[in-house]
Amino acid sequence: PLVTSTKMFQDAYAGGYAIGAFNVNNMEIIQGIVDAAKEEKSPLILQVSAGARKYASPIYLRKLVEAAVEDSGLHIVLHLDHGEDFEICKMCIDDGFTSVMIDGSKHPFEENIALTKKVVEYAHAKGVVVEAELGKLAGIEDDVNVSEKDAAFTDPDQAAEFVERTGVDSLAIAIGTSHGAYKFKGEPKLDFQRLETITKLLPNTPLVLHGASTVLPEFVALCNQYGGNIPGAQGVPEDMIRQAAQLGVCKVNIDTDLRLAMTAAIRKVFVENPSEFDPRKYLGPGRTAIKEMVQHKIRNVLGSSNRL
Ligand code: G3H
Ligand code: 13P
Ligand code: ZN
């Protein structure tokens, strides 16, 4: 069935592992992810961004996820990723989503609280859980000074106050990750000290790590080998994801790694078989690449295998 993440996060928190939250945009992406979770007997979060809703249309994505639930028998959370206002959250709640993110991170503290509270009230009345965000995710380069970093990264005391005042179910934090394929210019670095402090002040609040793709070098290399041009792409090393999962991070958001896996596989088909033009012949391998990559993550990085 479609479920909320409440029990998933409790178990993950206690077990020191994390649940993968994968962005979905079409059928092949959904199938690849769900196949992997099924083989690994893993809980699963499928998340839909505003851009995904615009690309595929809301009803297609919802029906595809419903089909995945029915076909796989898995417990799946259907989550809105980065809802920017009350209206989109309400729309998704009314549509049957079991979880929504209200991303008020760009607003001042008090406005973020007010907006989040409004969504929490509406969602909880309908049995839906809410993720909010405090701190700014934008890429932090090595040369930013401490006060700039303090302004962008999640402040632990504010985080405690935020969760207490909003009643939110989980909190996305900023500790040095960023969205996309170019997360670090030099050595990858996350502020684990800050994460530990947040976890101490907020015991039992599930934390969420956005921008958590590893940007797997094998897929970057394949893309570049088969005609792509994505030099210098770098993500969060797998060990850092494991460490975060030990420190209260229960939800790990992954989109870029899906994009890279699928694109690498499709590029390879195009270069090796220039006469091929049946979409199934390249979308199929794209789907397989996603499945294998997700299975690796679930089993070797997130640690959510056999946790149903
Ligand atoms: O957080 C961003 C996710 O990767 C979703 O990206 O807004 O292009 O669908 P998108
Ligand atoms: P990545 O770009 O690292 O995959 O992050 C995805 C994300 O945070 C979606 O909300
Ligand atoms: Zn995100």
From TrEMBL:
Active-site annotation: D81 (proton donor)
GO biological process: fructose 1,6-bisphosphate metabolic process; glycolytic process
Binding site for dihydroxyacetone phosphate: G180, G211, A212, S213, N253, I254, D255, T256
Family: Belongs to the class II fructose-bisphosphate aldolase family.
Required co-factors: Zn(2+)
Protein name (database record): Fructose-bisphosphate aldolase
Pathway membership: Carbohydrate degradation; glycolysis; D-glyceraldehyde 3-phosphate and glycerone phosphate from D-glucose: step 4/4
Catalytic reactions of this protein: beta-D-fructose 1,6-bisphosphate = D-glyceraldehyde 3-phosphate + dihydroxyacetone phosphate
Binding site for Zn(2+) 2: D103, E133
Annotated cofactor note: Binds 2 Zn(2+) ions per subunit. One is catalytic and the other provides a structural contribution.
NCBIfam families according to UniProt: cbbA, fruc_bis_ald
Residues annotated to bind Zn(2+) 1: H82, H179, H210
Highest taxon listed in the record's lineage: Bacteria
Species per Swiss-Prot/TrEMBL record: Geosporobacter subterraneus DSM 17957
Keywords: Glycolysis, Lyase, Metal-binding, Zinc
Regions annotated as coiled coil: none
